[in-house]
Amino acid sequence: MAGVDQHLDELLSAYLDGELGADELAQVAGHLETCLECVAEFRELQAIKRGVRTLPQLQLPDRLLDEVHVGEQLSAYIDGETDTAEQVVVLSHLGRCERCRDELHDIDAARTAVRSLPVLDPPIPLMPRLRHEPPAHPVRRAVTWAASVAAAAALVVGITVNRPVAEPIDLTSFGERHVARQSVSDGFQVVPAAFPTGDAP
């Protein structure tokens, strides 16, 4: 019997909220015509719901709002994924919270830096293998990418630091020591790489 009473209570509450289907609505209406106890409970529920609707809406003091940061919403706000109500909350908070303004600036700067990175194409020999291999785990891919960048940077620094200083080139002696091949009708012949003006064959 307790289960039946609980079910009726739920139906009465749903009836007040306009959430019943046609069959349940007919069931509740028929029951209310014959049960004075449920009619009294129904009226009590009506009075409670009216009282709740008339309660004033309370706003938190500003000193408490400043302690509730919107860090989790900043990324969605930058991407334009917040609805109008959320945008109002975020903008209102940013107007009085320096910490969240700094965080918003950092997120925006980081995203701008990422977008400015050049898009690197993988080497052609790796393309067939990349097409057939399943995508790597995001964390593992990020670690591998970071390690590759660090290794490349170290290689560039090592080459730059350890590269011997080249001696100046004497262009005159360079031209005299080297020869170039010139194509002629009967094959190739070796000719001097540099000619005095007007002396070229």
How is this structure best summarized?
It is built from ten helices and two strands, in the order H-H-H-H-H-H-H-H-H-H-E-E.
Description:
Residues 159-166 and 168-201 have low confidence and may be disordered. It contains ten helices and two strands; from the N terminus they run ααααααααααββ. The protein has helices spanning 2-16, 22-34, 36-53, 62-65, 71-78, 84-94, 98-115, 127-132, 138-162, 171-177; strands at 179-184, 187-192. The protein starts with a helix and ends in a 9-residue tail after the last strand. 1% of the residues are buried. By secondary structure, it is mainly α. The radius of gyration is 40 Å and the shape is elongated. Among the domains are: 2-53, no CATH class; 62-115. Strands 1-2 form a two-stranded antiparallel sheet.
- Work out the helix count: 10
Q: Average pLDDT across residues?
A: 66
Fraction of residues in H or I helices: 55-70%
The count of DSSP E runs of length 2 or more, i.e. the number of strands, is: 2
- Share of residues in strands: 5-15%
Write the layout of secondary structure elements.
Elements: H1 2-16, H2 22-34, H3 36-53, H4 62-65, H5 71-78, H6 84-94, H7 98-115, H8 127-132, H9 138-162, H10 171-177, E1 179-184, E2 187-192
Antiparallel strand pairs: 1-2
Helix pairs in contact: 1-3, 5-7
